[in-house]
Amino acid sequence: MQYEIKELPEVRVAYLRYKGPFGAAIGDFWKEVFTPWQTAFRLNGKVTYGVAQDDPSTTPADQCRYDACVEVAADYAIQPPAKEAHLPAGRYAVYAFQGTADQVPAAWGAFFGQVHADGKADEGACFERYPADYAMDPATGVFTADLCIPVK
């Protein structure tokens, strides 16, 4: 699996939290909860992020937390139900994913395994970064995103 090491800047985000089993339900959360909220607050056309707060292999499924985030300016007033977070600046292994939602867990597994096998993984949150012009092919369900893991 080919990936790049990149220096990423700190990013301020507004987020909504999903709690429960990872998988298809996260896609439903984006579609049914996050995207309507994002549209209502005129935050479309911005880079978005998905941040898994827990490792589903060690956390009970009903306790797993995932934050759907959108990048916001320093002076943007974040209003409830959204909360503020900052994705830290640093070195990240970045894998350019292209596929369908049901392929994401396997891609994460392979990528995480590779970065660990290479001895580069560091502590910190892993996240998905979706481009501001994000689009999913309606016929195939294929989309692109960067998978990002902090590295030493």
Automatic annotation (TrEMBL):
> What domain of life does the native source organism fall in?
Bacteria
Which residues belong to any copy of the AraC effector-binding domain?
1-152
Write one Pfam family the protein is assigned to. Answer: GyrI-like
Q: Which InterPro entries match?
A: AraC_E-bd (IPR010499), GyrI-like (IPR029442), Reg_factor_effector_dom_sf (IPR011256), SmbC-like (IPR050908)
The identity of this protein, by name, is AraC family transcriptional regulator
